[in-house]
Amino acid sequence: MSVSRDELVLMKFAASGDRRELLSLMTAAGARITDASPRFVTFKMIDTPEKIETLLQSVQKYELLELLRS
Fold first, then answer.
1. Do the beta carbons of residue 41 and residue 13 sit within 8 Å?
2. What's 54's DSSP letter?
3. Which domains does the chain have, with CATH numbers?
4. Which of 3, 24, 6, 11 is nearest to 63 (CA)?
5. How far apart are CA 62 and CA 28, in angstroms?
6. Is 42 within 8 Å of 11 (Cβ atoms)?
7. So what's the pLDDT on residue 4?
8. What is the DSSP-derived secondary structure letter of residue 50?
9. Which of the ends of the chain has fewer CB neighbours closer than 10 A, N or C?
């Protein structure tokens, strides 16, 4: 039997630039907004380590303020 291990990642981004583009990328990947303000937006995602890594690579151009991964 194969066991799949999902990970949790919390990502806090600066709200500068095109917030709609970041929101679109994150929601398409399955991430959800957990907190937002005029200065930042925080997303939560639970998925495989590979999918999380792919998402993190795709959002490198945005200012990542904090990252928590478990």
1. yes
2. H
3. 7-69 (3.30.70.1150)
4. 11
5. 16
6. yes
7. 72
8. H
9. N
